[in-house]
Amino acid sequence: MGDWRQQVEALREQAEGLPEGDAKVRTLEEAVRLADTHGDVPLGYALRDGLIDAATFGGFPDKALVAFAWCRGQQKKDPQRFDPEDMLWKQKWVVGRLDEFPHISRKQIADALDDVEQSFAKLDAGQRAALKLRYQMARDMGDTAEAERLWEAWLVAPRDHLTDCRVCELDDELDHHVDRGEWEQAVKKAKPILDGRQSCAEIPHLTLGTLLYPFFKLNRLEEARACHVRGYAMVAKNREFLATVGEHLEFLALTGNLSRGLTVLEKHLGWALEHSSHRDRFTFYAAGSFLLGQVTADGREEVSLRLPKAFPLHAVDGGYATRALRDWMETQARDIAARFDARNGTARFMELLARNEVLAKEARLFPLD
Amino acid sequence: MDHRFQVSLRGVIDLLSHHLYSSPGVYVRELLQNATDALRARQQLEPGASGSVGLELREKQDGGPPTLLFTDEGVGLTEEEIHRFLATIGESSKREVLEARRNDFIGQFGIGLLSCFMVCDELLVVTRSARGDGRTLEWRGRHDGTYDVRVSEHPLDAPGTHVYLVAREDMAEWFTPERVRQLARHYGGLLPFPVRLTVNGATEQLNPDGPPWRRLYETAGEKRQALLAYGREVFGTDFLDVIPLRSAAGDVDGVAFVLPASPHFNAKQKHRVYLKHMLLSESAENLLPEWAFFVKCVVNANGLRPTASRESFYEDTVLSQAREALGQSLRQYLMDLAREEPRALQRLIALHGLSVKGLALDDDDFYRLVIDWLPFETSLGMMTLADYRRSWPVVRYTPTMDGFRQVARVAAAQGLCVLNAAYTHDTALLEKLPHVVSDAQVSAFSSADLPQTFEELTLDEREAIYPLLRLAEGVLAPFRCGVEVKKFFPAEVPTLYSSDAEGAFRRDAARAKEESDDLYAGVLDGVMAGAGGGEQAQLCLNLHNPVVRRLAAVESRELLKVSVEMLYVQALLLGQHPLNAQEMALLNHGLLGLIAARLDEGGGSSGPGSRGMH
Known about the structure:
Number of helices of chain B: 19
Largest sheet of chain B: 8 strands, mixed
Strand content of chain B: 15-25%
Helix content of chain B: 40-55%
InterPro entries (chain B): HATPase_C_sf, Hsp90_fam, Hsp90_N, Ribosomal_Su5_D2-typ_SF
Radius of gyration of chain A: 21 Å
Number of helices of chain A: 19
CATH architecture of the largest domain in chain B: 2-Layer Sandwich
Keywords (chain B): ATP-binding, Chaperone, Nucleotide-binding
GO molecular function, one term (chain B): ATP-dependent protein folding chaperone
Protein name (chain B): HSP90 family protein
Largest interface: A-B, 48 and 51 residues
Shape of chain B: elongated
Oligomer: heterodimer
Distance between the termini of chain A: 60 Å
Structural class of chain A: mainly alpha
Strand content of chain A: under 5%
Strand order of the largest sheet of chain A: 1-2
Distance between the termini of chain B: 109 Å
Helix content of chain A: 55-70%
Organism (chain B): Corallococcus terminator
CATH class of the largest domain in chain B: Alpha Beta
Shape of chain A: globular
CATH superfamily of the largest domain in chain B: Histidine kinase-like ATPase, C-terminal domain
CATH topology of the largest domain in chain B: Heat Shock Protein 90
Number of strands of chain B: 21
């Protein structure tokens, strides 16, 4: 019996030394399966606690959700032993991403949000955290009026121990200004993050991607370049940042850095193909479609790319018709958008996709090389 | 009319000492910085001017706190500059303004002086400007925010500045000769101007030799030893080797030290960095390419911009070019090792494989040079990729640890070599192989591929096994598991269960759903509905196994069914696939049946509901 426990310990140790990502998540999954095979519920719970973190920060929201759901079951069965309070913070992460799965219904999302709010209310805390979650959900699902109302409510609610850190909140605030085209405001608010005075696990990684377009619109291209160079290096090794990689892709296309763009595309397409967040896939495919549209417009009918074998149009010799590639990306983005919009009852994703036409008009050369 | 805020200097100093300055010792750094800037300004004014910086500790006869006299032969200050720079301390709390001023030779003077109030209550600055009217001026500033300026009764012979600090009683520990020497060496040990310390009439130069990597040595061996000793002094570590660093962009030079042990993967190495020969940071992180975490370095940069926090450099084009060039220095070292000292390279790979692999991923030429030397775990033991490719034309690898564990034993028994590519970078490195080496073939391998390597049944065996096969298919269909029969080794293994990563995750999700509440069970359905289908799991029976052979001859359908169920559950458990509720029921049911059958055989009375396996 001691043998498998040692194996679990070795796996846990190994996972600790790994960077965020695939290998770390799989190593912890293996440890969880060992504990489950031997029916050790407390160990399975403790291991999943780490797995939720690794899956959340390593780009596997589906795996975080599965691990959380299992833990949730144990909490319901034996709340003395498995205190739900210890996992409230992780519950925020998990629930915050439910809308990224188009097969989860609006009702289920609403129920999960209510459930979060009730769990928080039991502790007489977490009002601000819950409001932010609701705001972000409403925003992501295209419920503009509701998002507007919740934005106000979120920012006046008092902070407490369940509130996200100030830097993460600041980063989330930027989205609101970008949505409204308030470029100056977004850039100004982001200053403490840009200066490197404040940071968190995923900040400034996310912020630098968010600010590319505002800087482009403000014609502050040198600053946009700095955001790209610094930001892309931060996100290029972790699939958790697929959507941010998409933002960099869009920026490269927008500024005519097409060769760089194709390099980014070929490097990260593999993530998009199997990413469980359909929202992140959408962002990447939409940007990929825009890039390939620009390459086509540039007169390139064929491009050579090293794309993964799992890619449905995979060509052994690496030669692809640009237009066909673009159409494939566009179709993927459109399919996902249609599913999201049907679920949400709004038109947000189709509108986001239509933005590519605007971008094509705004594009202008700013060579990074 | 407008009024001005009354700002308490004391309060500002408190704030700064808590937030801007890491320790009271930085007063030495700020004074050195002021002196250096003043000397550079003088050189600009009078090309060819040389100068020095002096520190003199004067002990009080009565045992009271000592005085530190800090002198430079720099450009000095005019009266207008004194008012402008020394009296408008804290004019803006914005770091950018402070930064902008730092780049101005004298603009930052006041800011630097402010730090002195952490260790003394009164400051006397005696200065004569090289640009002024030849008068020597005295500025006396007090921590309560008052100051006065007058013409000095003790004029200086030449332009320059003398700063007198009388140690505050409770800060005397920052004025001992040892402490002052250590601080001045620490911050200014590489300065290109002589820095001298005088204590009790005895004077020593604190920076006699300049940066150790620029000194001339008799032999390469001597240089290496000297630099390794320097690395030990700076970082307290016995390093393996030293690598010279040079970048024209940013005007950077220095040395990198190879760490003697494998660093933690995400450990960012903290480097010691000098800006124009003044110590900037001991924890700069963004100087080298990401893969280069096998070294710690000491560098001086003349042309990089520090960030506001002064912990690292501002991410601009110059920095990215410098990073590229410094990466090239390290790459060159590794390339030379690969060509000239492959054994040393192998030792380095054993310690710093992650760095080597990281670079190989980004750099095709380097990849070609080192890929053959990289060691991998395989089902037949550790071997380098060159060894592997000598014996097997196709590189078969498993991308996950779990996948490797599932195939390793059986693959080894068939004499099949499968490579474990679950470790960081390995899968990406192998997938790159055909793109870089033209005739190479690689292929991902999983337990589902194993049966293709197994021996087929003869026609007679096929016929004999057919009833078992049909029945097993029916029994396992509800578990989304297919069945096949082959012959493989080791013979004592009756079955091989295989599923892909998606299949394993589906099983996890199904079990989580069983455990969870209605809300999350519903949510999980939504998640899994959008996931990829994946291949169906397979149970491969081994006809080399005696039990399986005997099973083929059994006619009782009931007995066959229970046996297949038990083989299935056993295969799952052996492969460390946790059982779901339905499978757990199979196990319990089967075990009880076995006990009952044993009891029947042994003549025990058979109770109602028991099921024999006659």
